[in-house]
TrEMBL record:
Keywords: Membrane, Signal, Transmembrane, Transmembrane helix. The chain crosses the membrane at residues 313-335. Residues 1-18 form the signal peptide. It comes from Maudiozyma humilis. This is Psg1 protein. It comes from the Eukaryota. Pfam families: Psg1.
Amino acid sequence: MKLSLLLASSLLAASASAYKEVHHPPEVKETTSEEPKPWLRTIYSTKVEIVTPTVIAGVTFSAKPQETPDPLEKWVSLDKLGQPKTIRPEIKNGRTVRARPDYSTYFKTAAVRTYSYEDLKAHNMDPNDKYEEEYFIPEDDTYTSLNPVMRCTPDAYFHKGLAKDISSEPFCTPRENVQWKVGHTFFATWYTRFFEEENSGKVADMVRVHMSYVKESLSEKGISKRDLHATFFSSEWVKNVDGIYAITPSQDWLQGEYDRKIVISVQPDYVSDAQFNPLENGVVMHIIQGSKVAKTTKEDWVLIEAGLQKEKWWYIALTMPTIAIIVFVILYFFLRANKGMRDFSDVTKATLGKKHRVIGKFANMRKFKGMKNHKYTELPSYNKNKGKQS
C-alpha cells in the first residue's frame, strides 16, 4: 500500500515538473493604411495625370476604379440631411436591385444632324428630301466618373414651402428645415445643368456656395432679401460639373446660440454679387449645437415644418385664450344691454297658431262630403241620464 502511494506521488511530481506553459504567437496587426494612395491614368488618349484620392465623411473620392467593372459595385446615396449612406446592389430573381442610378439624358446635350438623299440613299426617300435626326452627345465623364456619390437630377427634387408647392431646384440635398449638427460633415448637392445662362445657353463653369442667416418668421412665404442678417460663409469658386460640396458646420457659426436659421444657396459665375439673391433658389434649414435632451414629438416636428419655433409658439398659445376671453366679455355685456328686447312670446304664439290652424271647412273636404253632421247628444255613445259616455 505504501509502495503504491509512493509510486503515485512520484508520477504526479514527474508530470508536474514536465508541464510547460503554452505560448501563443503574438497577434500580427494589419499595417494597411486607411489613406488611399495616388494612382496614374491617361486621359484624352495622350495626357497622363496623377490622381490623388480624397476621403470626406468616410466617402473616397477619385478612387482607382477596378480593372474589371463590377455590376454589383457599391455606391453612395445621400439622406435628407446630406449624409452619405452606402448602397450595396444585389441580384434577385435575375434582376439587379438597388443598382447604381441611371441618369438618362440629364447630363447629355441634345443635338440635330441633317442627312440628304446622297448620305442615306434610303429606298423610300425622294432625291430632294432631307432627314433630321435628334441625338444626344454624352458629357465628358473624365472627372465625374470618379465621384462615387449619387448625382443630383430633377427626379430627386423635393417640394418646399408651407404648402409644399415650391420646387427645390436646383437642390437635392439638404431638405428644407433639416438640422445640421456642429462638427458633422454634410453634402450639399445641386443639378449642374440648372445653371444655364439665358442668353448664351452655356452652363456655368464655376459656382460658389453661400450660407446666410435668416430672420426667424412665422411664415416662409413673403420672405424677402431684407430678412437676411448676413452671409457668414462663402466657399471658394468650385467646378460646377461636380454638383457637390462638403460642409462641416463650425461652432462659431452659431454665435453663442443653440439654433440658427440659415439659407444655403449657390451662385453661378455669370451672376454678380450685387445681382445674386440667396433666397431666390435657396433652401432654408437650421444649424444646431447638438442633440436635444428632450424628445421631439410629432407635434414639435409639425411646428418646425410650419416655421413655428421657440418663443413664437408660446406667443400664439397665450394669445388665443386671451382673444376667446375678450369675445366672451363682449358677448356678455351685449346680452345684458339687450335683455329687455329678448321677449319672443309673440313669435312663439304665431308659430303655435300655425301648427293648430285648420285650412278650409270639413264640409268642403272630398272625404267628408257624404257625411251628415249630428249633434253630440244624438251620438250613440251619449247617455242622457249621466250626461257622459257609457
